[in-house]
Design goal:
This protein has about 425 residues and is α+β, with helices and mostly antiparallel strands. The chain folds into three domains: about 5-105 and about 250-275, no CATH class; about 110-245, no CATH class; about 295-430, no CATH class. Helices cover about 50% and strands about 15% of the residues. The chain is built from 15 helices and 13 strands. Helix 1 packs parallel to helix 11 (about 260-270), helix 3 runs antiparallel to helix 6 and helix 9 packs antiparallel against helix 10. The protein is globular.
């Protein structure tokens, strides 16, 4: 590697340092985003085995886009032109499968869960309802739940359907890379993969309706096994189609273009100066102070001062964040005034702190309102977590952030809203 090329990659490292730092933090925050290392490793390995011509002009263009986007885009979207710059320099962009693997290495799962969880579960529930009615069961869909007589079955625990979607996308990208599919064939295979994923998840929800509603009894391990079975069938179908779509490999001499041009080095050095621009501070709209309640479900409340991290988060939160002690329990309340990505699902925050989430289901609270309950376990700590969101001016209520977000986005005047998360130590659960 000559000196000028080394200077180019040094300048790019300095330019992309904020994104690299954010990416490293997301990989290690315990929320499961470390799975992105799998497609990243595959993309790098395949690019080293099958080298392709670089495109310095396109790399320059994407570098300019990155520099401009630094001022107004969040890190996840900012990382897209950064990845494109590296792809154009390495030649990865000439293989659709490899570029797909590169983008799947981004920490996407939490964002997919936030924006797509509710629409994905709605489609799954609607499909399961249709199949069950066709085979003679008068099932009604209630949001993302299926009602049959006195039994109400929730469709999918949090993230499960989207985990299947991410795994399907990863398999599609791997197949496109291995069979050297062009962009058109890869796009066709991706649409088929999406359809197969929706079908597999719908069939999974349909079959699990029977044990979940008490109509039949199945061992616990078969609940996961049924999902794996349908995913495997969808995967085998994709493998067969990818082989049919296989593009004949045309061996061409590797023609490299100069990457060590003075113009690109100057551009990379200039772009690195964006790190000295002060970060844009987003302040939440001013809102009247919300008085603290004195009791919760008949028990006295004691407000707990926010930690420095919570106080920093609350500063930009579009509403108000408070934490209380309720006997042995901890209550977290978030009043929010508009649709915002900052209303995170509590299980995302708990997973980031090292907790394992299990036994997720929708139940009724003391007032008969639906509430999402699950167990959060870390070392010797175990909590029963209850989570719900409701409008402070109507009877609308939600058990998941994704469903609330889409409602708040299209009905901004139906707020404000309140999200409540109650954490009960398991060893105190029976004493209540």
């Amino acid at each position: 590697m000559n000196l000028r090329l080394l200077l180019i990659y040094t300048a790019l490292t300095a330019t992309f340092f904020p994104v690299l730092s954010w990416y490293w933090h997301r990989l290690g925050d315990g929320s499961g985003e470390s799975f992105g290392l799998i497609p990243l490793t595959l993309a790098v390995t395949l690019s080293l085995r099958n080298r392709h011509r670089s495109s310095p002009r396109l790399a320059e263009f994407s570098l300019v886009i990155y520099a401009l986007s630094f001022l107004f885009l969040p890190p996840l979207l900012r990382s897209v032109p950064a990845l494109c710059t590296l792809a154009f320099l390495s030649g990865i962009h000439r293989q659709a499968g490899q570029i797909g693997l590169l983008f799947l290495s981004l920490p996407l799962q939490a964002s997919l869960d936030f924006f797509l969880a509710y629409p994905f579960r709605i489609i799954t529930a609607e499909g399961a309802q249709l199949i069950l009615k066709l085979i003679g069961y008068p099932v009604q869909r209630l949001g993302v739940q299926l009602s049959h007589g006195s039994h109400i079955v929730s469709v999918d625990p949090p993230c499960s359907g989207l985990q299947m979607l991410w795994a399907t996308a990863l398999l599609t990208a791997i197949l496109a890379a291995l069979f050297h599919l062009n962009y058109r064939r890869t796009l066709q295979l991706s649409f088929i993969a999406l359809a197969l994923c929706l079908l597999a998840n719908t069939l999974r929800a349909t079959f699990l309706f029977f044990p979940e509603s008490g109509l039949i009894e199945l061992p616990e391990f078969l609940h996961e096994g049924i999902g794996l079975l349908f995913f495997s069938l969808a995967g085998l179908t994709l493998c067969y189609l990818a082989r049919l779509f296989q593009h004949p490999i045309s061996v061409q001499p590797l023609r490299t273009q100069k990457l060590s041009s003075t113009r690109f080095l100057s551009l990379a050095c200039a772009a690195s100066l964006i790190n000295f621009i002060p970060a844009r501070s987003e302040t939440s709209p001013s809102s009247a102070s919300i008085p603290s309640p004195l009791t919760y479900q008949g028990r006295p409340l004691e407000e707990i001062p926010l930690s420095p991290h919570e106080a920093s988060f609350a500063h930009n939160f579009p509403g108000q964040l408070k934490v209380y002690r309720v006997g042995h329990d901890t209550l977290i309340t978030r009043h929010i005034t508009r649709a915002s990505r900052m209303l995170h699902p509590s299980y995302h925050c708990l997973k980031a702190e090292g907790f394992t989430i299990t036994h997720s289901q929708i139940e009724k609270d003391e007032l008969g309102r639906p509430v999402l309950r699950y167990r959060a376990t870390r070392a010797h700590e175990m909590f029963l977590v209850s989570e719900k969101i409701y409008s402070t001016h109507s009877d609308r209520q939600w058990t998941e952030v994704s469903a609330w977000y889409w409602h708040a986005l299209f009905h901004p005047n139906s707020g404000p809203w309140k999200a409540e998360t109650l954490m009960t130590p398991i060893h105190h659960e029976k004493t209540r």
